[in-house]
Design a protein that fits this description.
The strands form two sheets. Strands 3, 4, 5, 6, 7, 8, 9 and 10 form an eight-stranded mixed sheet that branches. This protein is globular. About 40% of the residues lie in helices and about 15% in strands. The chain has two domains: about 40 residues, no CATH class; about 230 residues, 2-enoyl-CoA Hydratase, Chain A, domain 1. The chain is of the alpha/beta class.
Length: about 280
Amino acid sequence: MSWLSNVRNKIASITKKESPDNLWHKCKKCDAMVFLKEYEDNMHICPKCEHHGRIGPMTRFEQIMDENSWKIIPFSAVPEDPLKFKDQKKYTERLKAARAKTEEQDAWVNVTGTIEGHKCVVGVQDFAFLGGSMGLAVGQAFVDAANRAIEDQCPLICFTASGGARMQEGTLSLMQMPKTTVAISMMKEAGIPYIVVLTDPTSGGVMAAYAMLGDVQIAEPDATLAFTGRRVIENTIREKLPDDFQTSEYYFDHGMLDMVVHRKELRAELARVMSYLMAWKTAA
C-alpha cells in the first residue's frame, strides 16, 4: 500500500467515526434535511412541513402514556410458520430478521397504563415489522388487548399501521378479520370503549377490519389510509382520483373519521375522549 493510500484510509476512518450517518433526517414529504435530534425532540415531526413520521411502539408509548405508568402485556404464543411458507426466503428467516431489526416479537405490542390519569389498554402496530402485516400473532395480540380491557373495565386504544394481511400465512391471516371483529363485539357488549388512531399507512385487511370499527375514529394528519391502492381503483373505475384521495383529511371531510389530531395534541385529546366515554362508570 502506498503512503498516499494509507493517509486516505486514515482520513476516511476518522471522518466516519466523527460524522455518523444518523446525524440527519431527510423528510419524506418536503425533502428537508433536519438534525435527527431536533426531529426526535419534535416528536418525529418535520419542523419544516409538519409531516408526521412513522414511529414504533416504544416511542409511541413514551409520547402518550403517563411516565412510569405503562407495563407491557406478555405476548401470547402462536404457531410461527403454520404453512411452512417460502418465497425468496423462508418465512422463519424473515421473522428472525424483523425481530432483530425491531427488537419486538411481532408487529403488535400491548401495554396497560394511564394517559393523564385515565386507565387504559393501548395496542400499537409496528409498520417496521414486516410492514405491520396482520397474521396470527397480531390477531391474537388484538384479542389479548380486548380481553384485558374488559377485565380491567377500561378503554382500549389501538394505533394502526399496516400494509394489510400477512401473505406468508395465507387464509389464516384473513381469518384474523372476523376474529378481531368478534373481540370488538365483546367489548361493545361489556360497555368498553374502543378508540382507534389511524397512522401512516393503514391499508388492506387491517383497514377493512378493526381499523374502521372504533367507537371513535381518530387519525394523524396526512396519513395514507386505504383498502386498496390508488392505481388499482383508477384502473377499475377509469377515472382520475382527487390528489388528496386516501388521506386522513379526505376521510374526515367525507364523514369516515371523527377527527384528525396533530401528534402534539393527541395525548390530551385521548384523555378528553376517555373522560367522556367513561363518564357512566364515574356516575355509577
